[in-house]
Amino acid sequence: MSDNGNPYGGGYGTQQMTASAQYGGAAQAPAPAGGLVKDTTTAGFTKDVLEESRHQPVLVDFWAPWCGPCRQLTPVIEKAVNEARGRVKLVKLNIDDHPSIPGQLGIQSIPAVIAFVNGRPVDGFMGAIPESQINQFIDKVAGPAGADQAAQIEAVLEEASGLITAGNIDGAAQLYAAVLQADPDNAKALAGMAECMIAANQHQRARELLSQLPEEVAKTAEIQAQLKKLDQIDEARKLGDPVALEHTLSLNPDDHDARMKLAKIRNVEGKREEAAEHLLLIMKRDRAYDDDGARRQLLQFFEVWGPKDPATVMARRKLSSILFA
């Protein structure tokens, strides 16, 4: 993968990815307006406002092109929303083009701003109020900036992990980058960014990132897991052709050397359950092979996969049945 258009092209990926979040009032680069401010339509209102407000409050600005106070409010409220860095989002609805929703909500004067939380309108204001009052309004519906920093970061990290599982690597990388802007030594975010780089086939950049960390961060389980993953990838490249190994095993299922190599290759291919099954089969047939090497290799897989990974849960259960049968 070339650097052109690559979100992992430098640093922690923050050169191209400027996603930001507010954690404890830390100074950060502003989030792009495209991420926090958008226009919507009658058809898009459910997704852009009702559904999105289940993640964070959404301010809906009802406006019209002919409205002078609307033009006064627009730059002020957009600035306030961007400086809130993800605590709220702003959705703008042109009432001339889309009159049905403001009509249903009883909007009779513009500009009017209504805050939605969990799919419901909870508060609002009318008129082009000063920026200080807009900031107070945002604090009222979203909570003061910096409230419960650790909980906010954990929530973002959990969301990023879910995006990786779903295959949205760029989305996850943006969230990890936002956390790292607020907490540069966050081990989970650093490990997550490395995982994104690995998934994007940026192995060397991932290793460079992990090699530059302070000693206390480098020793954490999350960072060590990513370093081991990189080592496993490097090793697997030297183990031969998996098709040839499969053929070898079809001729001799007890060729444990070939099966061990194939397990390591399947692991870096992301076929974790298949990799585990190969190692478990070796254990069933010959616990003495390589001084119980299949079990030791499986435990190394567990360290990288994590205790909650479905492959870990499955393999650990089967491992227990072999060890304690």
UniProtKB/TrEMBL annotation:
PROSITE patterns named among the record's database cross-references: THIOREDOXIN_1, THIOREDOXIN_2
Family: Belongs to the thioredoxin family.
Gene name of the record: trxA
Recorded coiled-coil stretches: none
Keyword Chaperone: no
Protein name stated in the entry: Thioredoxin
Organism the protein comes from: Peteryoungia desertarenae
Entry superkingdom: Bacteria
Ranges of residues in domain Thioredoxin: 25-143
Keyword annotations of the record: Disulfide bond, Electron transport, Redox-active center, Transport
